[in-house]
Specification:
36% of the residues lie in helices and 21% in strands. A hairpin with a 4-residue loop joins β6 and β7 (154-160). It is globular and about 45 Å long. With 203 residues, the chain is of the alpha+beta class. α2 (63-75) crosses α4. It has helices at residues 42-57, 63-75, 84-93, 102-113, 116-122, 167-181; strands spanning 16-21, 33-38, 127-130, 134-135, 141-142, 146-149, 154-160, 188-194, 199-202. Residues 1-17, 22-28 and 30-46 have low confidence and may be disordered.
Length: 203
């Protein structure tokens, strides 16, 4: 069908796909899952930028953490090295990025995208979803950094710009894997990628 992928229920036409848990059809039945599509409003984009700006403002004196947040933000906007410069320009226009930070953030993200392990992981025939919400019953939402999907499997990748590998990071990926497994996807894998040390870890 034109405008749709071959993944059952995943609609990419007209907006940003979100994973939505549907209500049970009848008492005693398990909840089912489907993909739905909601256009992201300009207001929502502004709110997300304000959150990033707030985080950055609190880290004026911590250059390394600022670089991590900025690099994370840039990775959420790009899928390839060719998209980096335009996205950096947009981040400057949104007052998220200082001139003196531009080249450090650029180099850090290029280093991530050129990582041989990530290149191999991303080389398959997947639909790439960046920062898409998984919305469960009750309206609670979760947002993995990247999900790669095809008819056979889903791969979750979360980027971390910290110096330590923490158990909380692994628990976060395990939770994402559980949520996608409930969608009856045949196989789900999860990875952590640490940008400062170029480590890709299977969870």
């Amino acid at each position: 069908v034109e405008g749709k992928t071959q993944i059952p229920g995943l609609i990419t036409q007209g907006g940003i796909p979100e994973f939505v848990q549907e209500e049970a059809i009848a008492d005693g039945e398990e909840n089912s899952w489907s993909f739905a599509c909601y256009p992201q409003s300009q207001h929502l984009k502004l709110q997300l930028n304000k959150e990033t700006e707030k985080q950055l403002g609190a880290l004026v004196q911590n250059k390394r953490q600022r670089l991590g947040i900025l690099s994370h933000e840039l990775l959420s906007r790009v899928d390839s090295i060719e998209q980096i410069d335009r996205s950096l320009q947009e981040m400057q226009q949104e007052a998220l990025l200082k001139e003196e930070e531009l080249y450090e953030v650029r180099d850090l993200v290029i280093n991530v995208l050129q990582n041989a392990d990530l290149i191999q992981l991303f080389s398959g025939n997947y639909t790439h979803l960046n920062e898409q919400d998984i919305i469960v019953s009750g309206g609670v939402s979760y947002r993995p950094d990247k999900i790669l999907m095809n008819e056979e499997e889903a791969i979750i990748v979360d980027f971390k710009f910290t110096d330590k590998i923490e158990n909380a990071h692994r628990e976060q990926i395990e939770n994402y894997k559980h949520l996608l497994s409930e969608m009856r996807i045949p196989a789900v894998r999860g990875y952590l990628f640490y940008g400062f040390t170029s480590q890709l870890i299977l969870v």
